[in-house]
Amino acid sequence: APAPKQSRHPPQEMPAAAAAAPEAVPSVGDEAGEEEAVDESGVEAKDIELVMSQAGCSRAKAVKALKDNDGDLVNSIMSLTK
After folding, report:
1. Which pLDDT belongs to residue 3?
2. How many Å apart are CA 21 and CA 43, to the nearest integer?
């Protein structure tokens, strides 16, 4: 009998805070009214989006966390989900 097919991608563990966050992450164009513009220099857009989705936070908080943690994704997410 053939072996059962294995999924190549294990299910990703999501931090509890991200799973419990009720607010949807706004799309990039929607936040002009609710937040001041954030200086994103030195921070990758894809890193910001990853931190936002995993930590369930605003773009400004994601950028600040990435800068505070020298661009370290894991520490940025951890700092936002304590």
Report:
1. 60
2. 24
Nearest to 63 by CA among 24, 37, 33: 37
Q: Which residues of 16-46 are buried (b: 16+ CB within 10 A; e: fewer)?
A: eebeebeeebeeeeebeeeeeebebeebeee
Regions of the chain where pLDDT drops below 50 = 15-35
Dihedral of the alpha carbons of 71, 73, 79, 80, in degrees to the nearest 10: 110
pLDDT recorded at residue 45:
96
Cut 0.70: pTM above it = no
Angstrom CA distances, 62 to 3, 26, 42, stand at 43, 13, 13
